[in-house]
Amino acid sequence: MKRRNFLKVTAATAAAATLGGCTREQIEGSKSIHVNRQRKVTLKLATSWPANFPIMGTGVDRFAKMVNEMSGGTLKIKVYPKNILVPALAVFDATSSGQIDAFHSGPYYWKGKDPAFALFSGAPLRMVASELNGWMNYGGGYDLWRELYAKYNLYPFIGGNTGVQMGGWFRKPIESLEDLKGLKMRIPGLGGEVMAKLGVNPILLPAGEIYTALERGTIDATEWVGPALDIRMGFYKVAKYYYTGWHEPGSILELTFNKTRFDSLGDEHKAIIRYASEAMSAQMYTEFMDQNARALKKLKNMNIQVLDFPKEIIEAAKRAMLEVAKSQSEKSADFKRVFHSMEEYYRLVKPWTDISEAKYLSIR
Ligand code: CA
Question: For the whole model, what pTM was predicted?
Answer without folding.
Answer: 0.88
